[in-house]
Structures are given as C-alpha cells and as structure tokens.
Amino acid sequence: MYNHPAHESTPIANRQPERPWRTCEAAAWAGTSERYLLDLARAGILPAKKISGTWWFSPSKLAEFFGVDSGDR
After folding, report:
1. Residues 19-25: contacts with CB under 8 Å, at least 24 apart
2. Calpha distance 11→29 (Å, rounded)
3. Which residues contact 31 (CB under 8 A, 6 or more apart)?
4. H/E/C letters for each residue in the chain?
5. Which residues are CB-contacts of 33 (< 8 A; sequence separation ≥ 6)?
6. Which superkingdom, per the lineage (predicted)?
7. Mean pLDDT across the stretch 46-72?
8. Most buried by CB count within 10 Å: which residue of 3, 37, 61, 68?
9. Domain ranges for the chain
10. Is the predicted pLDDT of residue 69 greater than 90, yes or no?
11. Which CATH code fits 18-66?
C-alpha cells in the first residue's frame, strides 16, 4: 500500500498513545495529594475515568488543567 508523503510527516502519524496515570502517579506529578485529585475527579472538575474501581488520569489533560506543559513537571 502506498503512503502519501503528507501523511508520513503529520504529527498524528508519529504520536504514540499516552499511557494513563493512576491516582498516585498523577498526584506525584501535580505535587498534590491523591485525595485532592480524587475529590476534583469525583466532582467532575478534573477529567478522569473510573474503571473497575481505579481512577485513571490523562497526563495531557492534567497538564492542561494545571496550566503547564506536561514536560515541565
């Protein structure tokens, strides 16, 4: 199959899916308590997903929420 050169140079084509963080990882990155993050997530203020009793956080959405570049912390 032929790949058009424009498709090969697009940022999306080269991106790896980000690995979601558990609460402890997200709290360590944010420099805050797990309880604080969970309170925000439960209230729907902070984007997160609860799957089988475990809360998962997107690193890029955390960075956006806290107003920093995800590589800054």
Report:
1. 19/59, 20/49, 20/56, 20/57, 20/58, 20/59, 21/56, 21/57, 21/58, 21/59, 21/62, 22/54, 22/55, 22/56, 22/57, 23/54, 23/55, 23/57, 25/57
2. 25
3. 73
4. CCCCHHHHCCHHHHCCCCCCEEHHHHHHHHCCCHHHHHHHHHCCCCCCEEECCEEEECHHHHHHHHCCCCCCC
5. 27
6. Bacteria
7. 90
8. 37
9. 18-66
10. no
11. 1.10.10
Distance (Å, whole) CA 56 – CA 27: 11
Residue position matching structure tokens 């203020």: 45
CB-based contacts of 12, cutoff 8 Å, min separation 6: none
Q: Whole-model pTM?
A: 0.71
Q: What are 53-62's pLDDT values in tens digits?
A: 999 999 999 9
